Amino acid sequence: MRALVVTAVAAERDAVCAALDAAAAGDAGAAGAAGAAAGGYRPVALPGGYALHRAPAGPAGAPAAPDVLAAGVGPAAAAAGTATALTAAALADTPYDLVVSAGIGGGFAPAAPLGAVVVADAIVAADLGAETPDGFLTVTELGFGTAAHRPDPALVAAVAAATGGTTGPVVTVSTVTGSAARAAELAARHPGVLVEAMEGFGVAEAAAAHGLPVLELRTVSNAVGPRDRAAWRIGPALAALTGAFRTFPQALAGVPAAAPVPPPPTFRRTS
Fold first, then answer.
1. Domain span holding position 152
2. pLDDT for 90-144, tens place per residue?
3. How far apart are the first and last CA of the chain?
């Protein structure tokens, strides 16, 4: 299964690449990762100034290491970068089989504590819709789009089992939550939500446009709620991301290819 992993920033991309380099070297330790990195992932130029990171081909029969792209922060940048990489691969007759949004994010306590690994069973656009006198309406309810993508359950289960992750909804926002009131509002609107991030829905939209299955994997760097940078644990969350991706190729190798995703329908705006 040929996969594209999309992160927001270079630090997340490098955490993913370090894990996959170490796995390719047959050593999950830090020394192995550092040694593999010297001859491992290399940037490949894409249109638009993007740099796709790609590993050399491994031994025959070994799981293929995913390509990794840092596409930028937010759903629009994520969708644009993902679409660019998918289109370039399709034009080169080397299409991907799976797209993965990955990185760190805010966890909803107590279900997703600091350092937790979360695999999304729903990738939800938390603030794409309209405010009305009767409350918030999603684009699905408005009749001109989709507000959620649901990854293949077999893929979700396999990756969660391999990484020790918890499964549940991950919401995509354009503005990071900074208050207890907003955190409570999101939790009430999206029962069971585990993580808030900024790119998953954009990645999922691009994947759906190409008829490809999608996953989202997040590690928790902070609690969703009042903004307190002193409480953030970005380093440990990136380390957890590296740890999660060490088993990623093997997890995918044991899962049958997901069925093609139907192209998104055309909607006519009615309100």
1. 3-253
2. 999 999 999 999 999 999 999 999 999 999 999 999 999 999 998 899 999 999 8
3. 41
